[in-house]
Amino acid sequence: MTAEQITALLKTSGLPVVYGYWKKPPPLPYIVWLESGTSNFFADGKVFLRKSRVQAELYTAEKNTEAEQALENALQGIGWEKTSELWLESEKFFQLIYEFEV
Fold first, then answer.
1. How confident is the model at residue 45, as a pLDDT?
2. For residues 26 and 60, what is the distance between their CA atoms, to the nearest angstrom?
3. Is the pLDDT at 19 greater than 90, yes or no?
4. pTM of this prediction?
5. Is the separation of the CB atoms in 47 and 28 below 8 Å?
6. Could you tell me the residue ranges of all domains in the chain?
């Protein structure tokens, strides 16, 4: 899956989406995504199948189950995990991290 396809998938949530960071962030909630590594399958000492690990970060001003559901609906059809929920005191918002492989 290409970066454009991942962005398009995440945009089906109806939330603003960007890779990496916002130069000028839109109002919350929004999604920032990054490739966090690979989870390759090896055969005969070579990469047989390359899989990228993607981290989609949902930022909200408060606990926002509607935004969470919108992102989770966008991720239907692929395996995903919600791995953490943090209050970022310095920014005064929540960060929820979802991880999946493509």
1. 87
2. 11
3. yes
4. 0.89
5. no
6. 3-101
